[in-house]
Design the sequence.
């Protein structure tokens, strides 16, 4: 049981880190090369 | 109680007009901070009861000078207003203006009014009218603007006009009438604007005009309509000409109205402001005052934060040990006591420094002094490709790069903001201090120069100067190499000096601290769990370590503590992270490091200060973090078997100092940079760039000195 929780936490942590790589892009490019 | 009806009200205004103070007065503690979709600008919302069962959801929009945005914050305002035909957008807009700068504030008001959204004009700081020699004919102003106008004084106790604002919102909402103020189309080119209106008569002419001039389209507009609008947009010759005409006409109209309704007689003003400005923006005294203030602030940050930080440190260490002893032994126990609790502690421990720094920044902003500093520094910073506003992040960076990167949000030019974000982590943050402290103690003799100056202290000071100098040099290089179009111009509000509103300061500190804990915290915690896993697990050899050590030492007389240390050390060596340390050894050998230092380098990627703790574990020192002497002695006695000399000798120590001065060993900062730039591109460039620089410089230092 303990192993399941621990491995679950590690998987969630890895998943969260990977997910943050694909964070939702802004709807406009204004905060990138912003000249608006 | 349940409300029968809810309306949406947005507060909009120039920066420093008291918009947030009005928001706080209207909503009290009944507010929450979220994010605008897809961007990192905080969205503040709160509720207020208007009448009977009618309540209003108030949104505090970011401060802006006009609806032609120059920064990320201002873009939000444009987007909110341009989506005015959707159900979640404001039913009423309250434009908050500053009584002293009414003319400039009315430019924004006239733009909002032309969008034909029901509007209330709240003129704030009305209590100072007499002192500034200002008189306003309120009734005539209401008539001229065809709008509800309220005189407001949020800072005065008891506050003035807040109830009137609520009544005006209600009245405006009930009348549901909204007329344009300027009718710019009739004055510029009626035929052109008629053709524009034909694209979608549901939108006001000014809304359609903003879509083409600001290249920002509402979510609900169809593709055909968008194409038709782009045709207008491509007519750049007329577009530029008409934009100029629009601004000129707006100011003509505003001047016309103010001439009849507003009188500012400076001869009657009793102004301290001018005298203070002369001192604070003086080309010599201004800088002296500013740097003295900085010195005092940083002294306070380190002095005040050390006590709560020690407390948090001890608290989490005790908690970890308590959990370790009370929970049944096993992997879950290890994860919580060695992974999660230290991970959470690693986030919480920075709260005192961040909160104290933001307290000072907020107090300086509230008093109006910060605007003078920004003005003072702009000339110097612009030479290095940054803005006057970059001073705040660079200063904040000496405490922690995370709030510093967040503080770049008010820099309007994207290029200047990006450069500031990229160079800020070079400034020596407090997390580098534990690393510097132990290495300096190991390699620099404790002696005085000229009988007063401590050599170790001077080394530390040199590292701070190295950080600042590198930030400036990097900014110049980035300025010359980054091919980003920048249309930044320097506009800074020179607000009146005033006593800070403690309520605003309190909300500001809470909001920014929360943003740190919940933003970067999640990533730090995830990294801590992954690091723990990598250090606590390994391939086949790892599982047999304990058995092998026990077999080897069975005939020797060693204490249980010593045996446990040997097992822990061997386990680490055979763990995944140990294998990683060994695998990078060939790469770091030219810098003078072995695999053990390699492990510390990898683990301190999450946070620099982990370096000392990791080395302490590796060298099997009893895990007493406060006992720095023990760690120091153990590190001091560590021998390089190849050369038979001390591992932490002068060349290795200097190489490590240089490495930590330049390398981007901070996952939390990378996470924040990613959050602020909305892309992994820039944090990756930052990580690789700083890493390569650190490697090359450490290599040169080690090879030269050894």
Sequence:
């Amino acid at each position: 049981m303990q192993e399941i929780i621990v491995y679950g936490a590690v998987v969630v942590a890895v998943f969260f880190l990977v997910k943050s790589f694909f964070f939702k892009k802004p709807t406009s490019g204004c905060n990138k090369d912003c000249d608006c | 109680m349940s409300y029968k009806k809810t309306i949406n009200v947005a507060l909009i205004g120039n920066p420093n007009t008291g918009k947030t103070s009005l928001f706080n007065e209207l909503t009290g503690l009944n507010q929450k901070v979220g994010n605008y979709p897809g961007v990192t600008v905080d969205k503040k919302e709160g509720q207020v009861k208007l009448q009977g069962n009618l309540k209003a959801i108030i949104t505090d929009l970011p401060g802006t000078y006009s609806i032609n945005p120059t920064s990320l914050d201002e873009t939000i305002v444009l987007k909110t207003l341009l989506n005015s035909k959707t159900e979640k957008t404001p039913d009423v807009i309250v434009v908050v203006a500053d009584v002293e700068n009414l003319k400039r504030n009315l430019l924004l008001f006239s733009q909002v009014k032309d969008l034909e959204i029901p509007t209330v004009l709240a003129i704030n700081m009305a209590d100072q009218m007499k002192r500034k020699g200002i008189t306003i004919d309120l009734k005539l102003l209401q008539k001229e603007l065809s709008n509800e106008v309220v005189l407001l004084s949020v800072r005065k106790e008891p506050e003035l006009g807040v109830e009137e604002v609520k009544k005006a919102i209600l009245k405006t909402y009930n009348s549901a009438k909204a007329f344009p103020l300027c009718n710019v189309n009739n004055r510029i080119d009626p035929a052109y604007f008629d053709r524009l209106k034909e694209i979608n008569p549901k939108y006001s002419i000014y809304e359609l005009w903003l879509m083409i001039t600001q290249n920002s389209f509402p979510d609900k507009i169809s593709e055909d309509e968008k194409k038709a609008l782009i045709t207008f947009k491509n007519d750049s010759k007329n577009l530029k000409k008409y934009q100029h005409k629009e601004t000129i006409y707006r100011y003509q109209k505003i001047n016309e109205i103010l001439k009849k309704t507003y009188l500012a007689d400076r001869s009657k003003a009793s102004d301290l402001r001018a005298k203070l400005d002369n001192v604070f923006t003086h080309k010599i005294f201004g800088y002296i005052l500013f740097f003295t203030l900085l010195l005092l602030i940083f002294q306070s940050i380190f002095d005040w934060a050390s006590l709560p930080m020690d407390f948090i440190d001890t608290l989490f260490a005790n908690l970890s040990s308590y959990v370790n002893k009370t929970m049944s032994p096993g992997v879950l126990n290890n994860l919580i006591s060695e992974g999660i609790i230290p991970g959470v502690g690693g986030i919480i421990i920075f709260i005192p420094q961040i909160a104290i720094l933001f307290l000072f920044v907020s107090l300086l902003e509230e008093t109006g002094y910060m605007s003078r500093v920004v003005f003072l520094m702009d000339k110097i910073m612009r030479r290095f490709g940054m803005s006057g506003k970059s001073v705040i992040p660079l200063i904040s960076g000496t405490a922690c790069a995370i709030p510093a990167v967040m503080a770049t949000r008010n820099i309007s030019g994207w290029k200047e903001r990006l450069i500031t974000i990229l160079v800020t982590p070079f400034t020596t943050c407090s997390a580098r201090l534990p690393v510097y402290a132990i290495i300096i103690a190991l390699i620099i003799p404790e002696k005085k120069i000229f009988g007063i100056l401590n050599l170790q202290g001077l080394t530390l000071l040199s590292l701070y100067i190295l950080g600042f100098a590198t930030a400036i040099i990097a900014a110049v290089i980035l300025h010359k190499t980054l091919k980003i179009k920048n249309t930044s111009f320097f506009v800074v509000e020179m607000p009146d000096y005033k006593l800070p509103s403690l309520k605003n300061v309190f909300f500001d500190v809470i909001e920014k601290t929360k943003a740190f804990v919940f933003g970067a915290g999640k990533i730090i915690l995830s990294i801590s769990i992954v690091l723990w896993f990598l250090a606590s697990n390994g391939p086949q050899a790892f599982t047999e370590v304990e058995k092998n050590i026990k077999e080897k030492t069975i005939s020797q007389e060693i204490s249980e503590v010593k045996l446990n240390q040997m097992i822990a050390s061997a386990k680490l060596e055979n763990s995944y992270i140990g294998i990683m340390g060994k695998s990078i050894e060939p790469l770091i050998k030219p810098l003078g490091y072995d695999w053990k230092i390699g492990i510390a380098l990898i683990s301190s990627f999450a946070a620099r200060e982990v370096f000392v703790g990791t080395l302490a574990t590796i060298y099997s020192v009893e895990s007493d973090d406060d006992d720095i002497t023990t760690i120091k002695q153990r590190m001091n006695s560590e021998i390089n078997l190849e050369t038979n000399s001390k591992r932490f000798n002068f060349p290795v120590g200097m190489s490590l100092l240089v490495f930590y001065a330049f390398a981007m060993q901070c996952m939390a900062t990378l996470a924040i940079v990613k959050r602020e730039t909305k892309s992994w591109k820039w944090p990756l460039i930052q990580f690789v760039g700083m890493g390569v620089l650190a490697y090359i410089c450490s290599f040169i230092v080690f090879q030269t000195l050894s």
Notes: Residues 19 and 35 of chain A are 29 Å apart (CA to CA). Chain A has one helix and no strands. Helices of chain A lie at 2-21.
